# Entry
Amino acid sequence: MTANDDFSVVAPFEVRASAEQRVPFVFNSPHSGRHYPERFLAMARLDRDAIRRSEDCYVDELFGGVVVLGAPLLAANFPRAYLDVNREPWELDPRMFIEPVPPFANIRSARVAGGLGTVPRLVGDGLDIYAGRLPLAEAISRIEAIYKPYHDTLKRLLTRTHARFGFGVLIDCHSMPASVRSGENGIRPDFIVGDRFGTSASRALTEAAIGLLVSMGYTVAHNKPYAGGFITEHYGRPPRNLHALQIEINRGLYMNERTFQRSAGFDALADDLSRFCADLMSIPDDDIRDLPLAAE
# Structure
């Protein structure tokens, strides 16, 4: 069996969109997938709860309001522990596989060293996912059947957006453990806005996003400790009028991290995020386009 079999009933990902795209924004939730194929679970040494520790639980639902606002939302159904599309396509740890990895694989990235490559070795708590080595064909199957189509879909959404509006904005949506601290003071931020240190989005867009969240009473950090991963870096091209921001949400705002249950704050946060996105999307186009990069 292969990755195609794992997602023969449930699609590996989906685009949620209204009949017409009305704004030059595309939203992406690559880590909130929660369909764990039985074949994958049989390979894993972790139970059904422990294997969810890398999941950005319910982030696709928290940002679901953008669809009625006229923006498409690309959402993964496959879990991050199974495949991480916020990596290069071939960031592979050779220690995970029976056979040698391809010579073009990036085996020396910091993400691979940390056990968090394209096919992860660890979940968020540093626990090994697998009891032994995998056939290399397993990684190739997931990359060919899911990773590449996912990025083809994201690229198509952004290309169409750029062609229609003259520019495009990607909002890459994530969540982080409540224990994450930022800055010299070690604050626990409610949100972290990442723009790859000013290289993936215009200063105006970044400042607007941070300002809107702060005005709503949230504590916001910028780039530290999360500046954005492969998706933000790869798709954010301000000189080409393509901007990308990564938004990290503190899970303590909306869920119990031990039980994975939504908390009483879930609905209020979802409402705030809909308002935040509506306000961000109402920024005049000329305030986003053709601005110089932030100096960092």
